[in-house]
Amino acid sequence: xxxxxxxxxxxxxxxxxxxxxxxxxxxxxxxxxxxxxxxxxxxxxxxxxxxxxxxxxxxxxxxxxxxxxxxxxxxxxxxxxxxxxxxxxxxxxxxxxxxxxxxxxxxxxxxxxxxxxxxxxxxxxxxxxxxxxxxxxxxxxxxxxxxxxxxxxxxxxxxxxxxxxxxxxxxxxxxxxxxxxxxxxxxxxxxxxxxxxxxxxxxxxxxxxxxxxxxxxxxxxxxxxxxxxxxxxxxxxxxxxxxxxxxxxxxxxxxxxxxxxxxxxxxxxxxxxxxxxxxxxxxxxxxxxxxxxxxxxxxxxxxxxxxxxxxxxxxxxxxxxx
Amino acid sequence: xxxxxxxxxxxxxxxxxxxxxxxxxxxxxxxxxxxxxxxxxxxxxxxxxxxxxxxxxxxxxxxxxxxxxxxxxxxxxxxxxxxxxxxxxxxxxxxxxxxxxxxxxxxxxxxxxxxxxxxxxxxxxxxxxxxxxxxxxxxxxxxxxxxxxxxxxxxxxxxxxxxxxxxxxxxxxxxxxxxxxxxxxxxxxxxxxxxxxxxxxxxxxxxxxxxxxxxxxxxxxxxxxxxxxxxxxxxxxxxxxxxxxxxxxxxxxxxxxxxxxxxxxxxxxxxxxxxxxxxxxxxxxxxxxxxxxxxxxxxxxxxxxxxxxxxxxxxxxxxxxx
Lengths: 322, 322
Prior knowledge:
By secondary structure, chain A is an alpha+beta fold. Helix content of chain A is 31%, strand content 27%. A 7-stranded mixed beta sheet of chain A has the order 9-11-8-12-10-13-14. In chain A, strands 2-7-5-6 form a 4-stranded mixed beta sheet.
C-alpha cells in the first residue's frame, strides 16, 4: 500500500498538499460560500471511446461543482481496487485523472485506497469528492427557475451512454460515437463572469435530458415545454438509438448541461456559450411555463407538432454507465 | 433510484442542504483554514460487535478531520450497492450513519448511489468525504514533532481489528472484544480548546500503532522510543493475539489515536483526556528522540528491557478491516 502510494499515486498527482501525507488536506479559504459534492464511478468498461473511468471521475465531480455556480478548487480520489488489477491500467487511469485536473486548474489533494478480493469491484471503482467556492450573490437553485425562462443546452445528446454501451457489448456497428465526457467548469465560469442572470444549471447525466428536466420542473413546481426539432442529436446516435430501441432523451451525457435563464438574457447567454469549444452547439430547446394541471409536467412537442408528456423511467435504461 | 433517495436516504439523513437535491451542497464558510478528507469503507462483515460499516464510515472521516485539528462540519455519503442488497440492512446502516453524525454535530449534506451486479461489492461499499474548519494558529503536522516530545495514546489497542476478524471468521472463542469504533472529534476538541501545544495527532487505523508511529517518525526525520509495558492492551485481545499469532501493535483501531506534545504539556494533556469517556486510559507510551543512526527508527523497549526496532509490515495483517 505504501509502495502504491509512493510509486504511483504521489508522483502522478504530485502536489504539496498530497505530499504532506496528513489525514486531511488543509488549505486556506476566504469567507463566502463553499460547494461540496461527491460521486462514485463504477463505469464498465473502464476505457471507452472518448474517455475512461479516471477522466469521468474528475469531470463528473467538477461538473457537479460547476452546476452550483462554484469554481472548483480541490478534489479527493478514493480507489477501491480489485486484487490483481493491472498496474499499467492503474497508471493510465491516474494519469488521465491528473491531466483532467490540471487542465481544469484543480488539485487532487487527498485520497484513500482499499483493495478487495479478485472477482469484486470489476478492476477499479473510483470516488471523487470536490470543493469549490461561489460568489455569494450568485447562488443557483431550482427555486430560482421562473415561468418564461428559456431552457438552453450546450451540446448534442446521448454520446456518452451509447459510446460506453457499444464498447461494453462489443457491437460491431460502424460508428463515430465518442463519449462527450468533458469538464464544463470553464464554460460555466465564462457564463458566471458575464453579466447573465442564470437561474439554474444541471448536467444531463443519469437519466439524460428528460429525467433531469422532470426533476427540475417538479422541484420548481412549474411546467417545461421542449421542442424535439430543436434538440441536437448526432446522426450516428439517432440511427443507433432507432436500431437498438433507445431514446436519446434518456441517455446519460457527461459533457452536456441545461440552464434556465430569463428570456431577455438568452441572446447574451448563447453568445458567451458559442465562443467556448464546449458550447458551439448551444441552443434554446424550450421554455418554462406556469403549471396548469400538473406541477413538474414536461411536455415534448414532437417534430409532427404533437405534444406528449415525458415520464421518469423506472430503472436505468443503461446501467453501469458512470 | 429516485424511490431509494426519497424513501430511505432523504428521510434518514433529513436536513435542508440534502433536501435541496442540488448537485452540490452549498453552505457559508468563514475565512480560515479548511480541512478536507475522504475514505472508502469495504469492511467485511458489515455488522460486527461494537459497530457496523455505517458507523465506521462516519467515525473514520470525522477522525481524519479531527486529527488535523479541525472541527468537522459536513460529510458526504456515497454508496455502491450490490443488486439485491436487503433494504432492511441498508436502513440499519444509514440510521447508524445518521446517529453517529448527529451525535458529532455534523450533517450528511450530499451523496450519490450506484448499483452494481449481484456478486460485486459484498452488499455495500461506502465512501464518506468530510470538511471541517481549523483555527488558523493551530495547524498540526508531522514537521512540528520535536525531539523530547512525549507520545500519548488515548486507549487500549487492537479491539477493532480483532472484533471484525473474529466475527468474519466465525471463531468460537468466548471473548468480550468489541470494536473501539468511535468519533474522536469531541475529545480532540477538548484538547484544542485547552491551552495545549499539540504538535501532531494521528489515528491508529490501518497498520495499527506500529505503522503509524513509523510513518510519523520517518516524516519528522526523528526517532521514537516506546515502552511495551506502558501500552494498554485488553487481556482478551492479548490472549487472542497470542493464540492467533497477531501483534496488537499492528492491528487496526478505529477509536485510538496518538499525539505528540512537549513534555512540559504532558500533565495537562492527560488531565484533559482523562475527563473524556474516550480518554480515560490516556497514557504516555514513549518519547521522541533525535535520530542517531536512522531517521524514522521506532524502537520498542520490551517488558524485559530489550530494545527492538519496529518494521513496516508488507501486506496487511488483516485485510478488509475498514
